[in-house]
């Protein structure tokens, strides 16, 4: 009993006891669930992942047909979720930056527009906005009467048809990934304190941009079929368009809704960042003869983003989780394909565990990457003085 008088020993004992009790509860729950499933003639395990699904998916970034396995369908859902999540974050950032600029503007009209936007879209539930945009997009004209832009982009009730690179979906994703990595490297190199004193920074940035472009061109040259055009332009043939990329109304509705709704919250975060920048720094930039655009892009905006990036990371993770609303408009995101798989296979516990693990991995990966960026560009010590 003498050792329990030590505070550290008691704390360690309490933690061990808690872990043991938690493990027993989890073990008991799993055992009871297995017993109930066995009593109803249901088998547990993950062998069902290799069985054929027998149904189609409307939108898929990776090849999929009804004879594919549940495992392949889950990969389709994960790819769609990642694509929609990244697209929503990019669009919401653009919208948020514009509205935040309106909110800090000295122009009364722009300021009122920004305020009206915030108060309107932030107080309408995201699910209602998604349903509204889906209804609006599906009530557009049919394909033969589709709206045309430069005879290359067409908008109809079946979706938007736009030109695309004449390569497979996996190669297009590889090109997009190469571009994303290149831009991320340039942004990190430009904003990190570690490389501020590196000589010939401009030359090194040019080399990074050149390598990124070379990687993208190399992927396209390897993936393109011999004799085919590099671009595929949609053309009306019969009752539908052929060629290019078809953006279904489900994806468009979710992207628009999350961009508008998420942009309203991001705008307020960025506005707080703008207001946190000291007036002395802005006035010093103007005193050096910088133009209004250079003051905004090189002083005001970078300092604002550095100040509010931790809060923005929370908004990005939230937007990523908001992709689960795809089920309300029929978009095949991760949550949607899990729901369909549960109805088809009956493997509820296994599929819910996969869903939880998938979102934990995706969201923690996003948080880890952005936290590393925040650590690299964060202002510390005397840099915080205005």
TrEMBL record:
<comment type="similarity">
    <text>Belongs to the binding-protein-dependent transport system permease family. HisMQ subfamily.</text>
</comment>
<feature type="transmembrane region" description="Helical">
    <location>
        <begin position="316"/>
        <end position="339"/>
    </location>
</feature>
<keyword id="KW-1133">Transmembrane helix</keyword>
<keyword id="KW-0812">Transmembrane</keyword>
<keyword id="KW-1003">Cell membrane</keyword>
<feature type="domain" description="ABC transmembrane type-1">
    <location>
        <begin position="78"/>
        <end position="370"/>
    </location>
</feature>
<dbReference type="InterPro" id="IPR010065">
    <property type="entry name" value="AA_ABC_transptr_permease_3TM"/>
</dbReference>
<feature type="transmembrane region" description="Helical">
    <location>
        <begin position="251"/>
        <end position="270"/>
    </location>
</feature>
<feature type="transmembrane region" description="Helical">
    <location>
        <begin position="351"/>
        <end position="370"/>
    </location>
</feature>
<feature type="transmembrane region" description="Helical">
    <location>
        <begin position="171"/>
        <end position="191"/>
    </location>
</feature>
<feature type="transmembrane region" description="Helical">
    <location>
        <begin position="12"/>
        <end position="30"/>
    </location>
</feature>
<keyword id="KW-0813">Transport</keyword>
<keyword id="KW-0614">Plasmid</keyword>
<feature type="transmembrane region" description="Helical">
    <location>
        <begin position="203"/>
        <end position="223"/>
    </location>
</feature>
<dbReference type="InterPro" id="IPR035906">
    <property type="entry name" value="MetI-like_sf"/>
</dbReference>
<protein>
    <submittedName>
        <fullName>ABC transporter permease subunit</fullName>
    </submittedName>
</protein>
<dbReference type="InterPro" id="IPR000515">
    <property type="entry name" value="MetI-like"/>
</dbReference>
<dbReference type="Pfam" id="PF00528">
    <property type="entry name" value="BPD_transp_1"/>
</dbReference>
<keyword id="KW-0029">Amino-acid transport</keyword>
<feature type="transmembrane region" description="Helical">
    <location>
        <begin position="73"/>
        <end position="100"/>
    </location>
</feature>
<feature type="transmembrane region" description="Helical">
    <location>
        <begin position="121"/>
        <end position="140"/>
    </location>
</feature>
<dbReference type="InterPro" id="IPR043429">
    <property type="entry name" value="ArtM/GltK/GlnP/TcyL/YhdX-like"/>
</dbReference>
<keyword id="KW-0472">Membrane</keyword>
């Amino acid at each position: 009993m003498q050792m329990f008088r030590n505070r550290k020993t008691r704390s360690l004992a309490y933690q061990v006891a808690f872990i043991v009790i938690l493990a027993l509860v989890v073990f008991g729950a799993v055992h009871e669930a297995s017993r109930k499933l066995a009593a109803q003639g249901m088998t547990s395990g993950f062998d069902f992942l290799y069985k054929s699904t027998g149904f189609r998916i409307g939108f898929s970034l990776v090849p999929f047909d009804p004879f594919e396995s549940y495992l392949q369908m889950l990969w389709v859902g994960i790819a769609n979720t990642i694509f929609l999540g990244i697209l929503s974050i990019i669009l919401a950032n653009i919208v948020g930056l514009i509205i935040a600029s309106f909110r800090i503007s000295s122009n009364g009209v722009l300021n009122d527009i920004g305020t009206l936007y915030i108060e309107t879209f932030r107080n309408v539930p995201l699910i209602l906005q998604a349903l509204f945009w889906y209804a609006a997009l599906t009530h557009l004209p049919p394909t033969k009467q589709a709206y045309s832009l430069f005879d290359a982009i067409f908008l109809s009730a079946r979706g938007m048809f736009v030109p695309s690179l004449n390569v497979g979906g996996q190669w297009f994703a590889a090109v997009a990934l190469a571009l994303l990595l290149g831009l991320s490297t340039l942004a990190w190199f430009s904003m990190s304190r570690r490389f501020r004193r590196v000589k010939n920074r401009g030359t090194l940035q040019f080399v990074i941009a050149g390598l990124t472009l070379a990687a993208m061109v190399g992927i396209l040259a390897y993936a393109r079929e011999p004799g085919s055009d590099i671009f595929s332009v949609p053309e009306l043939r019969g009752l539908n368009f052929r060629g290019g990329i078809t953006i279904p109304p489900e994806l468009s509705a979710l992207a628009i809704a999350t961009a508008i709704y998420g942009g309203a919250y991001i705008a307020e975060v960025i506005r707080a960042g703008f207001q946190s920048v000291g007036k002395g720094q802005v006035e010093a930039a103007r005193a050096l003869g910088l133009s209004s655009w250079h003051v905004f892009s090189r002083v005001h905006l970078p300092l604002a983003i550095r100040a509010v990036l931790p809060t923005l990371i929370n908004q990005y993770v939230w937007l990523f989780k908001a992709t689960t609303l795809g089920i309300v408009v029929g978009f095949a995101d991760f949550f949607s394909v899990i729901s369909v798989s549960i109805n088809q296979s009956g493997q509820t516990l296994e599929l819910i565990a996969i869903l939880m693990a998938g979102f934990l991995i995706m969201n923690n990966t996003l948080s880890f990457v952005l936290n590393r960026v925040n650590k690299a560009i964060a202002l510390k010590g005397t840099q915080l003085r205005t």
